[in-house]
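re the bet — no i am not wrong, look at it urself. input seq straight from the record:
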Amino acid sequence: MSTMISTGSTSSDSVRTEAGRGRRLRLSGMNWLVWRQHRAAYWTLLAVAAIAVAVMVYQRQQMMTYLEGYGYPHLKDGWEDKFDPAPLNSTSQVLQLLPVLIGVFLGAPLLAGDLESGTAKLVSAQSVSRVRWITTKLGVSALVVVVCTTAVSAAFTWWWSPVRPSSYALSWYDGAGFDSSGPMPVALTLLTVVAGVAIGMLLRRTLLSMVVTLGFAVVLRLVWSHFRMSLGNVVTATTHNGVTGDNVYPNLPDSANVVDQSYLTASGDTIGWGSCNAATDKAVNACLEKAQVVGWSVDYIPMSEMSGMQWLGASILLALTVGIAAFIIVWGRKRLV
């Protein structure tokens, strides 16, 4: 009888143990394989993101202690005198490199490494389809990238927000501020990573793919820097108080990005502000009178447009990312191996 009781107790414990194991969150199948294959890159990204967030939280606490001494949120004049913008500037520069680094070291080798080593042929010989293998690789990698870049971007945006209305630390319309906050780091990084995967799939050589992905990331940065400000709605401010003397220039919002400025004529037309350059004031005034200049016309983008511009730009970049991802799946389904 005792033996039977003991056996029943052991079986019950075994069932409880298996049930406990089943309740744990564990990867299996292709998810486990992809994570294990690229775990060094994934854990590195997660660790760097955690450290970066911790540093930015600390830096914000230090900054807030300083600003509260000047009456934050209603800052007194002179707070910029001893404010050190170096931490914000240096961090924003590093954040601009993240899409490049992650695209080169994670995106480019993701498929190129398997194609070059022959692992892709081994996988295709198993019961797993090529589409599932590719989508799992893209999905797991994209998830890790989104988690890391979202955390870092949120921390930087939170850190910068108290001094963002002032251009003393960072200008919102420059890449240092615009591309390092909000949804932009996520969108730029995802596009670079997925483009790197596509490049690796086509070239099938890891080192070559990394070099080409680096070139793609640089070109993307240059194109985006020229395209960025075209996403905003331009506002025009005019005056009719002449162009020389006091209080003749339009009153613009703080940190407004001036796109263009011109002379405004009596007929409502504009002419270039350099049209009346002359050696003497008398000659300048004569030119202004002849052109019937009555004031200034200034085109600018207010800082209130920043959030909308970022989300619009991120939507465009994410649409491109989805398009490239679809190309990878369609191409890889038939021609990967």
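see?? The first strand starts at residue 235 and ends at 238. told u. also The radius of gyration is 29 Å. so pay up
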